[in-house]
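Input.
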Amino acid sequence: MKNIYYMIQSMTGYGKATATFGNKKIIVEIKSLNSKAMDLFTRIAPDYREKEMDIRTLISKKLERGKVDFSLWIEVQADSSATPINATLISNYHKQIISIAKEQHIPEPIDWFSTLLRMPDVLNKVESAELEDEEWQVVWKAVEEAIEHLVHFRIQEGAALEKKFTEKIDNIERLLASIEPFEKERVQKIRDRIIEQLKTLPVDYDRNRLEQELIYYIEKLDISEEKQRLTNHLKYFRETMKNGHGQGKKLGFIAQEMGREINTTGSKSNQAEMQNIVVQMKDELEQIKEQVLNVM
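Output.
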């Protein structure tokens, strides 16, 4: 595979990584879609929330641009995840309630478990332990791995986009070349049509003046400059793709300029065959514009 710095990348990607530390299974998942800037949303387990800024900095540095959804959560083994019950405290509450019921001559609770479990501090709350460096190193490595998987996904998608763009640029070049025969024919057709129409008029006309007007009129319909500029834009689009990732905005600008030249060519093409070719070029360009939004 070519060096990633000499390939365009898609903004669409997905990466996932898992790791274990003690009784914890650490899961990292990251997804990205196209966006004009970095738009990052994170969901991070409370144990690691203090490291959120470090994670955000790494993602912004590695991914640069895109609508990014990052998740980091923990799965804990079932036997260690249950909240401990303070049995000693339950026993004391039980004795106190029986004693109070006898003294006050009131019935004892029918559902003892429901009553006792609602008493204060029966369910021992486990305070979050301070995050150890050793655990964080394991988590950090998983975060880096998930990001690398997403980058690899982006590279693969970028290669597919580059292949698609090359195909569309080839098609536009072929269509542009196919205009030339019709372009030469139409000059004579325009001249012949105007002269035939003038012959039907019951007045004389200055042939020299007519020739001058015809030259002026035909020059206004000339598309040589548009063809040359479009050819240059197509070449520049190819070169920009080879310049590597981070070229999405530039490719979008070039596609806009290509559209200007194709539209001007269409407005000057007063021949059905040429108009049909221009429509096909527009279709190819629209497909480029749609996909270029996904390029980073």
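The mean pLDDT is 86.
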